[in-house]
Design brief:
It is found in: Endomembrane system; Golgi apparatus membrane. This is L-type lectin-like domain-containing protein. Pfam families: Lectin_leg-like. Its main location: membrane. A hairpin with a 7-residue loop joins β12 and β13. The longest helix has 35 residues. The termini are far apart. The protein is an alpha+beta fold. It is 21% helix and 32% strand. It folds into 2 domains: 274 residues, Sandwich (Jelly Rolls), CATH 2.60.120.200; 40 residues. The strands form 3 sheets. Strands 1, 3, 4, 6, 11, 12, 13 and 16 form an 8-stranded antiparallel beta sheet that branches. The chain has a 7-stranded antiparallel beta sheet with strand order 2-5-15-7-8-9-10, with no helix packed on it. The protein has a two-stranded antiparallel sheet with strand order 14-17.
């Protein structure tokens, strides 16, 4: 079979498969060019007619938007000028993180944003703290050394309501919605991040293995994000550094078929403040999952000892009871 024909078949399969969403709801997608960033980056600039605006140390080259160079104490960002009013959407980010630093001697990572605020410098991967909206972080440096079970780089998501702070010392664990490890540094092939928001369900996937296959990272229902926020990307370096590059950010409008009842419910329940349903349960589950191997070992060990102790006590009590019972018959 000719190579060109095989690629055509593969493209058709992928295209057809993406016409259907989860829960058997039919879905179509349309590229929104006014919210997308790609080569040759003609819509990037400081003029009012530009769709995207640079901030800090970010700069445009022919091949990428470099948020930070591989130099210390730099931060940069690129933000959309146009607010997004889509109900359901999907963002595909083509990015690259590379530098001269060896493992764990590089930092700090980049973030993809959908927030109420824009163009504000800060400590959270180059953006302001206490943000309002969604942040998806590609964290390349571990600040908390105690959690040895987490492998970095690590991708995680967070929803902020304007008063929740990102905890740097704990790598964002107290407020994260979930995540996955992703070895994205110094790859020879392309790396991609996939963020989908459909029917108040947030899905994050990655493609970093060069196999053109998405790998699950986060899938969470009950995420409430208002419309009219801005997309952006930012990065920061400190004593350690990396090149943080954005090759493209492509936003797709997703048209999902809804029943009349679902439409009426969504019209009545208008989202004004970002939030996550059952956030306390999510944190509790993460706390359980965050136990180290040693803690788990001792928990199991003491549980077994406790069970054995109770069994021995039970046997002794039963033995005494049985002996007294027999005496009553003599």
């Amino acid at each position: 079979m000719p190579l060109k024909f095989r690629w055509t078949i593969a493209f058709l399969v992928v295209t057809l498969s993406r016409c259907f969403a989860d829960d058997d709801h039919e879905m179509e997608e349309f590229l929104k060019r006014e919210h997308s960033l790609s080569k040759p980056y003609q819509g990037v600039g400081s003029s009012s007619s530009s769709h995207w605006e640079l901030m800090g140390d970010a700069m445009v080259t022919t091949d990428q938007v470099r948020l930070t160079p591989d130099m210390q104490s730099r931060q940069g960002a690129i933000w959309s000028r146009i607010p997004c009013h889509l109900t359901d959407w999907e963002m595909q980010v083509h990015f690259k993180i590379h530098g001269q630093g060896k493992k764990n001697l590089n930092g700090d990572g980049l973030a993809i944003w959908y927030t109420k605020e824009r163009m504000q410098k800060g400590p959270v991967f180059g953006n302001k703290d206490n943000f309002t909206g969604l942040g998806v972080f590609v964290d390349t440096y571990p600040n908390e050394e105690k959690h040895i079970e987490r492998i970095f780089p690590f991708v995680l998501a967070m929803v902020g309501n304007g008063s929740i702070s990102y905890d740097h010392e704990r790598d964002g664990r107290p407020t994260e919605l979930g995540g996955c490890n992703a070895m994205v540094r110094n790859l020879k092939h392309d790396s991609f991040l996939f963020i989908r928001y459909v029917r108040r369900r947030l899905t994050v996937m990655i493609d970093i293995d060069g196999q053109h296959e998405w790998r699950d990272c986060l899938d969470l229902p009950g995420v409430r994000l208002p419309q009219g926020y801005y997309f952006g990307a930012s990065a920061i370096t400190g004593d350690l550094s990396d090149n943080h590059d954005i090759i493209s950010m492509k936003l797709y409008q997703l048209t999902v078929l809804r029943s009349k009842k679902e439409e009426e419910e969504e019209e009545e329940d208008v989202i004004t403040i970002p939030s996550v349903d059952n956030m306390e349960l999510i944190r509790l589950g993460q706390s359980d999952e965050g136990m180290s191997g040693i803690a788990i070992f001792f928990t199991v060990l003491f549980s077994m000892v406790g069970c054995i102790f109770l069994i021995v006590i039970g046997l002794v009590v039963y033995s005494h009871w049985n002996e007294n019972r027999r005496k009553r018959f003599y």
